[in-house]
């Protein structure tokens, strides 16, 4: 299992990416933990700071790992968003990420749910 294998960018599990960004932790163990809880990456959209703190605590992510976890979540929510295709259509990456973040938090009308 070579962590620096960039061909593996299409990680089936966004959590691997998130925990992989947290520093020296047992990624597989954390991934199986959140999977066991049935936590999807997009569920984190509705998590506020307290939720995220509680989650970090349960996962034993402290200090720098906690901070890296939050940053990785933010990136993953943009990358794995159903809106991520907007990144290709908008030239300005920062604007597109802001837009995707905003769209992520919009409640979808039921007609849009596939």
Structure commentary:
With 114 residues, the chain is mainly α. The protein is 54% helix and 0% strand. The chain is globular.
Indicate the topology.
Elements: H1 14-20, H2 27-36, H3 49-59, H4 64-79, H5 86-89, H6 93-105
Helix pairs in contact: 1-2, 1-4
Our count of helices gives 6
Estimate the global geometry from the Cα principal axes. Answer: globular
Beta-strand level of the residues, as a percent range? under 5%
Number of strands: 0
| Major sheet | none
Low-confidence stretches: 1-10
Class inferred from helices and paired strands: mainly alpha
Counting copies of identical and different chains, the oligomeric state is single chain
Q: Compute the gyration radius: what is it?
A: 15 Å
**pLDDT average, as an integer?**
85
Compressed to H and E, one letter per element, the order equals HHHHHH
| Percentage of residues assigned to helices | 40-55%
The CA-CA distance between the termini, in Å, is 35 Å
Keywords:
114 residues; mainly alpha; 6 helices; 54% helix; 0% strand; globular; disordered N terminus
In short:
With 114 residues, the protein is mostly helical. Helix content is 54%, strand content 0%. It is globular, with a radius of gyration of 15 Å.
């Amino acid at each position: 299992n070579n962590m620096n294998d960039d061909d593996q960018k299409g990680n089936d599990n966004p959590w691997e990416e998130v925990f992989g960004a947290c520093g020296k932790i047992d990624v597989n163990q954390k991934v199986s933990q959140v999977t066991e809880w049935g936590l999807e990456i997009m569920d984190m959209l509705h998590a506020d700071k307290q939720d995220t703190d509680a989650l970090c605590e349960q996962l034993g992510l402290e200090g720098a790992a906690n901070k890296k976890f939050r940053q990785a979540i933010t990136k993953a929510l943009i990358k794995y968003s159903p809106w991520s295709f907007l990144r290709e259509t908008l030239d300005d990456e920062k604007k597109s990420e802001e837009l995707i973040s905003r769209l992520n938090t919009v409640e979808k009308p039921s007609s849009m749910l596939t």
